[in-house]
Amino acid sequence: MGSSRSLLFLIMAILQVRKFEGSLVSSWSFNGDLSDSSVYSNTLQGNNVEFLTTTAFQSILWGQYAHVAGDNSYARRVDFDFMVSNGEFTVEFWVKIDSQQYNIFTFANLTTTFLQFWNVGSQAGCQFEIGGEFPVIPDALCTALQSNSWHHVAIVGNFTEILWYLDGNFEGSSSLQSNHSIPGVGNLTIGFNSDLANFSAGTSQSMSDFRMWNTARIRGVGTSKRI
């Protein structure tokens, strides 16, 4: 009996370690609300967020989604713990851009921007910032985001490089000068808030299945609404 209990304890301990090392930190499906469907319950706070239903691409994307439009239309989690202890992370989401000026998401504190993905008009194209660096984004990804249609995007941090996926396809990688550490706690903002510089009231976008992982999902990045 004692050996059986010891074996069970060992198995449970291994599962807990694996769960943390490669865990889904947060998952927001926006199926009618801003609640987190993962085990960590990082529920977002919303301001001027609409929940709409899509019938486009029913075999891939279905159900409801969040729509943010205009000044101070956003979903936010204050003091969000990304749980990243090294240079590995994955941020993936479905997005449909309705305007040429938008902020898809920002992870920052009051003084420093750690992660940000945005577009400030055709003169700049889409841009991504990590720890003060601005790695080059594949042209195909930026072009697709301006097509006013739904696309699945995955941004994978793999130590000193960023890997880019569009609709499940690998589009290329960007080199980083250093392996940026991401602090455990910051404010996550999806959409536009007056705290963010360089954006106007023209921001308008739709979002579904926004997920954050504390591991580099080099394989297994999917486009299905339920991975």
Query: Spans of 5+ residues with little confidence (pLDDT < 50)?
Result: 5-21, 198-202, 223-227
CATH architecture label: Sandwich
The percent range for strand residues is: 35-45%
What is the string of SSEs from the N terminus onward? HEEEEEEEEEHEEEEE
Number of helices: 2
Distance between the termini: 39 Å
DSSP E strands, number: 14
Per the CATH scheme, the topology name is: Jelly Rolls
Quickly give the structural class. Answer: mainly beta
Shape descriptor: globular
Q: Calculate the mean pLDDT score and round it.
A: 77
Q: Would you mind describing this structure in some detail?
A:
Keywords: Signal. This is LamG-like jellyroll fold domain-containing protein. Residues 1-22 form the signal peptide. It holds the Pfam family Laminin_G_3. This protein has one domain (24-213): Jelly Rolls (Sandwich), CATH 2.60.120.200. The protein contains two helices and 14 strands. It is globular. The protein has helices at 2-21, 139-145, and strands spanning 24-28, 45-47, 49-54, 63-69, 73-81, 88-97, 101-108, 113-120, 126-130, 151-158, 161-166, 169-175, 185-192, 204-213. The longest helix is centred in the first third of the chain and has 20 residues, at 2-21. The protein is mainly β and 227 residues long.
